[in-house]
Structure formats: C-alpha cells, structure tokens
Design a protein that fits this description.
Length: 189
C-alpha cells in the first residue's frame, strides 16, 4: 500500500491520491477542529473544506512470488584450485485494478511481473599439507542479490504506467500533446 501510494503520488499528476486507510483518524480530527472552532468563535464557519470523494479506487497486491524459477551455475577445479559461478532467478508478480466508485465496475486491470536476479562468484583452494593429515581449504566469493523490495516497487511503477497507457488506448483520457513553440530562437535568426 505504501509503495502504491508513493508511485501514484509520483505519477506526474495523473492521480489525485486520497487517504482512505486512516479515514477514521481524519474524521475524528475534523470533528475536533469543527467543535473547537464552534466553541471558541462566534462564527459557525469552521473553515473546513469538504472532503473529496474518490472517483476511482485502486486495488491489488502481490499475487505471486516464485523462487528459483531458473537456477544454475558452473565451476571447475584443477589440482585443488578452482572457481565457480552460480545464479538464480526469482519472479514477483503484482496485479492492480482501477474500480469506479459510482458503478463498482472494474475499468482497467494490469498484471505485471519483475524478475529478481541473484549471482554469486567465488574461488577456492584445497590442499593437504604435512603428509596429508591437515587439510588446508581457502574460499573467497562475492554474491549480489537484487532487493525484493526494489523489484516489487519497480513492478508497481510498471503496472501504473501500464494502466495509464491502457486508459489512453481505451480513450478514457488523452495524453496532452507537447506545445511546439513557433517563435524563432536566437540561433535561427
């Protein structure tokens, strides 16, 4: 929910986001403001603007997280000295939809997946020392895992972009055409 709200707020004005998760707190605070202003002023005007209604609701969530959809690696050693590489792929899938508050109709829906990659590389040395009684083993490696939270946020952003594009394709809204300045610039004069 928090990532979805941030993504909607950062959508360059496509969505006006209204609080509904903490609506009870908002209503209680508005009642306090209204009562306080009425008790301490002679004016019945509280200054509170009417709350906005939501024309659309956004619903959805993570619908799948598949681990190890692809995994593997490669390695080799010669005379106790070797190297290896391993990789793994996970997939997070999210689905969001726009629902009309007037009709409860699902107007648009988007389901997107984001791949999460993990890789590890390393090398090792193995050798018996002092008449093969004391083994010596040295390993060194490095692993890099894409953050699941970052991948999930990217999937949410992608789903929002997909909804905006689908809405434009269905003629629910229209992209604003960029304005072309017909004035000559200093360079062309």
């Amino acid at each position: 929910e928090a990532w979805l709200i941030e993504s909607l707020l950062e959508s360059n004005g496509w969505f006006k986001v209204l609080e509904r998760g903490q609506l009870d707190s908002i209503m209680r605070e508005r009642a306090v403001v209204q009562q306080t202003r009425q008790d301490f002023t002679d004016d019945d005007d509280t200054g509170l603007k009417p709350m906005l209604f939501a024309g659309l609701l956004v619903h959805g969530g993570i619908i799948a997280y598949d681990t190890n959809t692809v995994s593997g690696g490669i390695g080799a050693a010669y005379l106790g000295i070797g190297a290896h590489e391993q990789h793994r792929k996970d997939v997070v899938t999210i689905s969001i939809r726009l629902v009309s508050t007037l009709t409860s109709e699902i107007l648009l829906s988007s389901t997107v997946s984001k791949t999460i990659y993990s890789t590890a590389v390393g090398s090792d040395v193995f050798k018996y020392v002092k008449n093969a009684l004391n083994p010596l083993e040295i390993e060194i490696g490095f692993a890099k895992n894409e953050l699941v939270s970052v991948a999930t946020r990217a999937a949410i952003d992608l789903a929002i972009v997909d909804l905006v594009n689908k809405g434009e394709n269905k003629k629910m809204w229209k992209f604003k055409e960029p304005e072309i300045n017909d004035q000559p610039t200093d360079e062309t004069e």
